[in-house]
Design brief:
The protein has helices at residues 9-14, 42-70, 81-107, 111-114, 119-124, 126-147, 159-162, 167-204, 210-218, 224-246, 250-270, 273-294. The N and C termini lie far apart (89 Å). By secondary structure, the protein is mostly helical.
Length: 306
């Protein structure tokens, strides 16, 4: 016979325990919205990239049509890199003007909350993240020198260097490249693509049993294997995005792939896109800061090609 005492019904009535809360859902059971939802998933990522591609192409078409109308002689000339950069910026702005109101309608939460922006994680560790971005840039540049002995880099002028033909355009490019581009890329690749791929992988590898389905409905956590695969695939896509800008050099693209893995690690480690964005901004800022120093504040741009 068991030695455990029989609970006293009267005592249990006097000392009622509070109902346990479901931390995966809401803090108040009365406001619980049901099963845990994985946001963003592959459908959300596809929608975001569709909006982005449409916005950029729309901006390119409009801006170049306006330019052709004003300067008919430009039709027989190669595409203007400055106009393309302006169209890209306008496309980014249009993408977020559409995305910020659209996705909250699907998610029933704010855009930044849906992509796990988590500003507090970046604010609490901002100096460590900035330092990490600076060190990462130094390591990447050292790796670039090392890898250049094995892979030949094309001597063509890259799209970025085409924008550095005047001091004014060089400063605008530096601001865009150090601030705007990292924010957009982190939201796209670490905010949407990485968690979407991880969710897709976990769903495909899920055991088709009632117990597995129950666990799936109770949590939004990803498995380690899913996060590793998502980091690799999203980093490959990140490197490919810059491939056309750099004219597909193998060495720099391998470096970019490794750098993107580091951004992904920060995103996963702190569950914060703001944290990976801060590292990315620091990384890019160092590159442009070195350019500014080397050219005397972009007054001697010829030094960039030597």
């Amino acid at each position: 016979m068991s030695d455990l005492s029989i609970p006293d019904p009267a005592a249990a009535q006097r000392y009622k325990q509070s109902e346990a809360l479901d931390i995966q859902h809401d803090t108040d059971p009365a406001d619980d919205h049901g099963d845990a939802r994985r946001i963003p998933h592959l459908g959300h990522a596809l929608l975001f990239f569709t909006i982005g591609i449409f916005s950029i192409f729309f901006s390119i078409i409009v801006i170049f049509i306006v330019d052709f109308a004003r300067h008919p002689e430009s039709r027989n000339q190669p595409p203007n890199a400055h106009l393309a950069a302006i169209a890209l910026f306008v496309g980014y702005v249009l993408t977020f003007l559409i995305s910020f109101p659209v996705f909250p309608l699907l998610w029933h939460r704010s855009f930044l909350n849906g992509i796990h922006w988590t500003y507090r994680a970046a604010r609490l560790r901002w100096w460590k993240l900035v330092l990490f971005g600076i060190l990462l840039c130094g390591i990447a540049q050292g790796g670039q020198l090392l890898i250049s002995h094995f892979f030949k880099t094309p001597n063509e002028t890259t799209d970025v260097l085409k924008l550095l033909d005047t001091p004014a355009s060089a400063w605008l490019t530096a601001i865009f490249g150090a601030l705007v581009a990292p924010l957009v890329e982190e939201i796209a690749f670490r905010g949407f693509l990485l968690p979407a791929i991880a969710t897709g992988y976990d769903w495909l590898s899920l055991d088709r049993t009632p117990a597995a389905y129950y666990r799936w409905r109770q949590t939004t956590a990803h498995t380690t294997s899913a996060l590793v695969l998502a980091a690799v695939v999203s980093s490959a896509a990140f490197a490919a995005l810059h491939g056309s800008q750099l004219h597909w050099p193998v060495g720099p693209l391998l470096i970019l792939f490794g750098v993107s893995l580091a951004f992904s690690w920060i995103r996963i480690r702190f569950q914060s896109v703001a944290a990976s964005a801060l590292v990315h901004i620091s990384y890019n800022a160092v590159i442009f800061f070195v350019m500014i120093i080397a050219t005397g504040g972009f007054r001697h741009l010829d030094k960039l090609t030597h």
